[in-house]
Write a structure and sequence with these properties.
67 residues, alpha+beta, two-stranded parallel sheet, elongated
């Protein structure tokens, strides 16, 4: 395991974009129903499968593996 608790060779990159006013615009659009997030969730026991799906580019939107 790496010092961050991730298996070696695995990296997690957060989304980094936009300004605070742009974030407010996005939240406003979502509140109106004009944006619908696409989230696919895997149980922790299938985290390896989730990482493989992300690497293969088969995940639409976000992949979530809760702890």
């Amino acid at each position: 395991m790496s010092p961050l608790g991730l298996p070696f060779g695995v990296s997690v990159t957060p989304t980094c974009w936009g300004t605070r006013p742009e974030l407010h615009d996005v939240l406003r659009l979502a509140a109106r129903g004009d944006l619908r997030p696409h989230v696919r969730t895997w149980p922790l026991s299938r985290a390896t499968e989730a990482y493989a799906a992300v690497a293969a580019g088969t995940v639409r939107g976000r992949a979530v593996v809760p702890d």
